Amino acid sequence: MAQPVQGQPNVQRPMLAPQTDPVMQARIEADFKPVYLAVGGPGHAFAFCQPHKVEKCDMCKLDFTALNRISKIFITNPNLRCPPPPTVLQQKLSQAVTNTKEEGNTLYKHNKHREALAKYNMAANIAVQRPPWESSALFREELSTVISNRSAALFELGDYLGALVDAETVVSIRRNWPKGHFRKAKALVGLRRLPEAEQSVSLGLQFEPNNTLQGGASKTHANTEGE
Amino acid sequence: MASVLVPVLYVGIVIGSLLVFSHFYRKRNTGKLYEPYFPSHPERDVYVTLLQQSDPPVHEALLKAALLRRAMTDVSRVVKLREDKPALQNLLQKGSIGDDLWNSLLQAEKELEAEILEVVAEANTFVEGWGGLIFQTAGEMLANEKMRGIYEDTSAARARKGNRTTTWQGWQGHRAPCS
């Protein structure tokens, strides 16, 4: 199922030499309010709040964590002058994630659920290392598969709450994937919340009506409800 | 017999005065400023503050990161305006809202266009040709950051769920009949 790489909707860029409206420019400049920040860290490449020198300050209501994270990527890759287009990817990262996930899958099949969980955690950590400007569609696929498998492992270990949280993560990042809803339904069944489980299954079936696995689960829920 | 000139003159004066009035009215309205649609632009403020810092001079990496964050905010605002516009138009036609909010939105659109041009120009000062790419990159980064935020919220979400379960169970015992 090839998913086309889709960025946000295209911003209209004028074809001719853009003339900035001086009135608007003046408004932009008038709108400027200086921020109380201080620059520090190695190479003066990180921002902190000025009075407290913290990255994320609740008192000054400033949060530079994301900014510093991006800056760090630039610092650690001095050859990277500007982020490449989203189609340029790091091959090794995807491979590492897939390999770790497959190792986890093998362990899961051999009923070694705790080790499988460790592998899935590792895979998730690797997947999150991806530079933020790479294809978000690929990131979504990888992360959702790993977290879905982790939810299954947690379910087998009896941690229904953790499985539910993971399944909800999967559903919120990839809503049209029936497996995510299936995992959520299973976790809810484990928590004895059957009506919600049935809702989850029916929502998942809406995305893929011919999904046999979920169809079977739906019938099972209907039977257990009737008891 | 009254001359034909009189009604013609009358019509001419009426139309002339209408034209004169509309000319001055329009002139008065173009300079009018409406309430800003978006309250402030914190990422732009951070970027300009960093640019103005000269002692010690800021590393280029931090400036590029600040520019990327600014572009990300701009992309999210473009999306929001696109969503809000037809909805506001509908409300305006039905008469539920006044003209001011609609004019604010139009003004915000023009401001955003100027802002985008500025970001493109700034991007080109760092790396030639980056301006054409930066908004595509910003879009991907927005999606990425959203997913990463959900993932990192996992343990907090678990704590919330844990609390809610016990509260629900505790409440069930003391449930009063709805009257």
Task: List the defining traits of the structure above.
heterodimer, A: 227 residues, mainly alpha, 2 domains, two-stranded antiparallel ribbon, 9 helices, disordered N terminus, B: mainly alpha, elongated, TPR repeat (chain A)
How would you sum up this structure, described in words?
In chain A, α3 (91-109) packs antiparallel against α4 (113-127), α5 (136-156) runs parallel beside α7 and α6 (160-173) runs antiparallel to α7 (178-190). Chain A starts with 21 loop residues before the first helix and ends with a helix. The longest helix of chain A is centred in the middle third of the chain and has 21 residues, at 136-156. In chain A, a hairpin with a 5-residue loop joins β1 (37-40) and β2. Chain A is mostly helical. Chain A has helices at residues 22-30, 65-76, 91-109, 113-127, 136-156, 160-173, 178-190, 194-207, 212-226, and strands at residues 37-40, 46-49, 56-57, 62-63. Chain A has a two-stranded antiparallel ribbon with strand order 1-2. Chain A is elongated, with a radius of gyration of 23 Å. The model of chain A is unreliable at 1-17 (pLDDT under 50). Chain B is 80% helix and 0% strand. In chain B, α2 runs antiparallel to α3 and α3 (60-94) runs antiparallel to α4 (99-126). Chain B has a domain at 35-153. Classes of the chains: A mainly alpha (227), B mainly alpha (179). At the A-B interface, α1, α2, α5 and α6 of A face α2, α3, α4, α5 and α6 of B. Chain A: This is Translocation protein sec72. Chain A: Residues 208-221 have a biased composition (Polar residues).
